[in-house]
Design brief:
With 186 residues, the chain is of the alpha+beta class. Helices cover 30% and strands 34% of the residues. It has one domain: 2,3-Dihydroxybiphenyl 1,2-Dioxygenase, domain 1 (Roll), CATH 3.10.180.10. The termini are far apart.
Length: 186
Amino acid sequence: MTFFNDELLADLAVDLPLFIASLQQLETKLQFSLGQYHADHISVRCHQNTTAERWREGLQRCGHLLSEKMINGRPICLFTLNEPLQVGEWKIECVELPYPGEKRYPKEGWEHIELVLPVGHEALHQTALELLSDDVLLDRSIKLKFSHPKGEGERLPNPTLAVTDGTVTVKFHPYSIQDVVESERD
């Protein structure tokens, strides 16, 4: 079974080209090429547990569960796909499925992509900010959020800078999600 022929994921398959177009629009606003960085995973958002369960079943049929952790009081699952998704210039094989939380998102579907900045965790925020021009930093349609998400058992600090235009989000972090998951097993 592949992602694009699984009826449980049909809504995500239809949404992917819209997500890619929104990502390209954000990239234009940011004034630099996102493609120079490794995209280690892509993430969805949903409002209902029934949607999360349907997507989970579909993702398990076209891949396997890499990790499931409680983060900020809700399960977050990572799936490795049997065939990577083509997202713009990236081939992404890891999908993040957070179960619904308190926050409501504008729509259910693809929400963000995560890029690895190959710097130590101490330098992530400064390095990520240096990618953004003064024009971008002053643009009120662009929002920034620094965070330090941490799952149970994670030993590798993985701070994040999220950059969003309200439609799509790009998150920068210093380590790939696969490295973070592997750190839990050591």
